[in-house]
Specification:
alpha+beta
Length: 138
């Protein structure tokens, strides 16, 4: 068996695992989108939240190997936030914005709402920090 044939066989053998990870990560991103829509509380949906799946720019192989990030742009009104997530050791691990990170071991409604609210706070701080008054020290 040539190296090329061996590569093709390995890719075929791991296809089911890769596809299961991709479906799980996309379902997580979709659930986060719904959590963001309801982050303001019951009866107060955020209507200007949208989800747009995208390929992760850091993945250098197609199909992405197991453990790779899956990504989506979440539009939150006037801004968009790239959220990347992957399945690691039984938990969803990810990052968003400039420096936000998370690990969700149980994707319950409460865990997703907490993550959604944290994401909103972190993005607000990111934009708010650029509006802070300058201090002039002598």
């Amino acid at each position: 068996m040539s190296e090329f044939d061996e590569l093709q066989a390995v890719i075929r053998r791991c296809a089911a695992q890769r596809q299961a990870e991709q479906r799980a990560c996309e379902a997580f991103l979709n659930a986060l989108y719904h959590a963001l829509r309801t982050a303001s509380g019951p009866g107060l949906p955020l209507n200007n939240v949208t989800l747009d799946f995208t390929t992760d720019a850091t993945v250098r192989l197609r199909p992405p190997p197991s453990g790779s990030f899956h990504a989506a742009w979440l539009r939150l009104g006037l801004c968009e936030v790239l959220v990347r997530v992957r399945w690691v050791n039984g938990a969803f691990q990810g990052e968003y914005g400039q420096s936000g990170g998370f690990r969700v071991e149980q994707d319950t409604e409460d865990a997703l709402l907490n993550l959604a609210r944290q994401l909103l706070r972190d993005v607000a701080v990111t934009y708010g920090a650029s509006q802070a008054p300058e201090s002039h020290l002598n």
